Amino acid sequence: MNKLILRRLLLGCLGALGFGVALPSGAAIDWQLPADSRIVYQSEVQEQNYQLMLGVYRRINNEWRTQGAETVSGLVSRKTIELPRGADEQGFFRALITQLPSRRELFSCTGLLCGTSNAWANTHFNQRILYGLDAHQFYGVYEVEHGEHLGYVVVYVVRRGNGSVMAQLEEVTPPSGITERLVTSAKSIANAVKSQGYFSIPLQFTASEGVVISAAQLQALANFLNDEGGSFTLVGHDYRPDQDHLAAGREHAAAVLALLKARNVRVSLGVFSVGRLAPAGRRSTPVRVDLVRD
User: Fold this and answer.
1) For this UniProt entry, which residues form the secretion signal (predicted)?
2) Is residue 21 part of a domain?
3) What single string gives the DSSP state of each residue in the chain?
4) If 33 and its partner were Cys, which of 27, 37, 54, 251 is the partner (CB 3.0–4.6 Å)?
5) Are 201 and 78 found together in one domain?
6) Are residues 31 and 167 in the same domain?
7) How many domains does one find in the chain?
């Protein structure tokens, strides 16, 4: 079982490294786009109140409102891309998100569950050309690692009525020193476990306090585990110098286990350590704990 856990983590980490590069703060991702694609619009500007939409738009009292949002600031890079008729919108969406280095999903939706494309095109992105078919749209928000800093990427892909495929890519690079992690919902945790084989738990670590996880994130994690059932393993990583990395990684995993038990998590949870063997994450944080399905 331990060999299987290690294999899953190594494959997942190497996959993330292979499809994207963690870039320094202020640098945009070098998107690999199809040869027949066309960039319709692009811009780069500093924004103080960028809205990361972590929910879908609903029409309430004749106004578009979202179910959840976070306000962030930083350098915002935007690209609007067009693919010709007959392109595969789902395949294109998947190809885009696999290029994100060390991504952590904050929210995603597909098709009719995203609400109306009209709201995304005209209210949120302010790009009429993005208006397409509600049943053929894909939206995702991801936290990524820019060197030692955090950044955010928004991806929206939709098929239009004329058969062409449009995409909106928005990257937000916060000022240096911003390390606060946004909460990942239970649904997005499930998506990560399904697509990547593991979920990297958002946490902070200091020598004095050890592992710290926000109350909201702990609750989302507990909700996922209790709803999902089954058996999982918490895998600790430690990249700090002059440490017994295997022992330290196990301590980190055990600390998360104690926090989850305090939240009345009912599933079977084990602890395991790979020390500093997994390559992804060394640049961004000295400590990591992943949730892996057994």
Assistant:
1) 1-27
2) no
3) -HHHHHHHHHHHHHHHHHH---PPTTPPP-----TT-EEEEEEEEEEEEEEEE-S-EEEETTEEEES-EEEEEEEEEEEEEEE-TT--HHHHHHHHHTTSTT-EEEEEEEGGGG--HHIIIIIIS--GGG---GGGEEEEEEEEEETTEEEEEEEEEEE-TTS-EEEEEEEEEPPTT--PPPPPPHHHHHHHHHHHSEEE---EEETTTEEE--HHHHHHHHHHHHHH-SEEEEEEEE--SSS-HHHHHHHHHHHHHHHHHTTT--SEEEEEEEET-S-TTTTT-SEEEEEEE-
4) 37
5) no
6) yes
7) 2
